[in-house]
Automatic annotation (TrEMBL):
The keyword Transmembrane belongs to this UniProt entry's keyword annotation: yes
MF terms (GO), sorted A to Z: 2-oxoglutarate-dependent dioxygenase activity
Native organism: Candidula unifasciata
Name under which the protein is recorded: JmjC domain-containing protein
Superkingdom classification of source: Eukaryota
SUPFAM superfamilies from the UniProt entry: Clavaminate synthase-like
Statement: the UniProt record of this protein carries the keyword Cytoplasm: no
């Protein structure tokens, strides 16, 4: 239509430079795709600038403090601030942020891995040479076979081991609840469930993990287990233990950790299936997925900072595991 009008105008003696001064002509001649592209580019730049400003503010703790950033995130998640206390590691609970900001890894840790190896009677020398720091996952089938924890640890044991005022019960230790969003800490679980049978038959899906930062309780715990026999002589386990407990059919969704060190996790009761996936940058060089089930008395050794991993409790028993990082 514009071409016909333009042709008719020229036939009537109107000059081209006169047509060019018309606002309508200028507007029609401006390419629409270019306008859309510039608009999209402007929007993208604004989003990037806002994200960069937020990250810079978090790093500098100014002009908005990390405490206020944390409260804002908790509000967006629908959490009750009146029931929460400030902890410097609170944002580690927002697991989706870990894969986004994690450093790129070297893929040599998974290049020659085709399965999760299961071995008994492994020596400390062989473990250090092949598995301790290589990133190759391993299940030591007799790792916890002689521990009394296999016979002692239960829901009731952990419910009774913490004295009133314990930092674990006061939610001063790190705590994770997978698929059980209204639980704020270990004390909520022990208060809500009367026994292990009640815990297992509850209407809510339960898979929880907590850091044992209670020194008195740690002494009692470690009287029932010892440092894994296969760890290198100069290796030290972290001072804090981690306990994970859950019912069949549930576990942790696929994630990657940011704890800095490899770790061991002993299966005390129940059976837990582990699924490992290599990082995105390693999918052409490493296996896409590995699976294995860890049984009572076995210990899995894994660098959870490099392997994406998920767990699923299988069988009919409550799963209880205990573990720690090692250097």
């Amino acid at each position: 239509m514009f071409k016909e009008i333009h042709k008719k105008a020229l036939s009537m003696g109107i000059q081209q430079h006169q047509l060019s001064r018309l606002q309508f002509t200028q507007r029609v001649r401006q390419p629409r795709p270019r306008r859309l592209l510039l608009s999209c580019l402007y929007d993208c730049l604004m989003v990037v600038a806002v994200l960069a400003a937020c990250l810079l503010s978090w790093q500098l703790d100014w002009p908005v403090s990390r405490r206020h950033w944390t409260h804002a995130i908790m509000l967006m998640q629908g959490q009750d601030l009146s029931q929460s206390t400030w902890h410097p590691c609170l944002l580690t609970k927002t697991r989706p942020t870990v894969p986004i900001f994690r450093p790129v890894v070297q893929c040599d840790f998974c290049q020659n891995v085709s399965q999760i190896v299961r071995l008994p009677h492994i020596s400390a020398a062989e473990f250090e040479d092949k598995y301790a720091y290589s990133g190759h996952p391993l299940i030591v089938s007799d790792g916890a076979a002689n521990w009394s924890a296999v016979d002692v640890f239960s829901f009731e044991f952990f419910r009774d081991i913490y004295e009133p005022g314990s930092p674990v019960l006061e939610s001063n230790c790190q705590f994770f609840a997978y698929g059980f969003s209204h639980v704020r800490g270990v004390n909520d679980v022990f208060t809500f469930y009367e026994s292990g049978q009640h815990f297992q038959n509850g209407s809510q899906p339960v898979y929880i993990g907590w850091e044992n930062c209670d020194i008195a309780a740690a002494t009692k715990l470690r009287s029932h287990y010892s440092r894994p026999y296969f760890l290198p002589p100069l290796s030290q386990s972290s001072l804090s233990d981690w306990i994970f407990m859950g019912i069949p059919g549930y576990g942790a969704s696929l994630h990657i950790d940011n704890v800095g060190l490899p770790s061991w996790q002993a299966q005390i009761s129940g059976h837990k299936q582990w699924t490992l996936e290599s990082p995105t940058e390693c999918i052409l060089q490493c296996p896409a997925r590995l699976t294995a089930t860890v049984h009572p008395g076995e210990i899995i050794v894994l660098d959870t900072n490099r392997w994406f991993h998920s767990t699923l409790i299988v069988g009919e028993e409550i799963s209880i595991t205990i573990g720690a990082e090692y250097d």
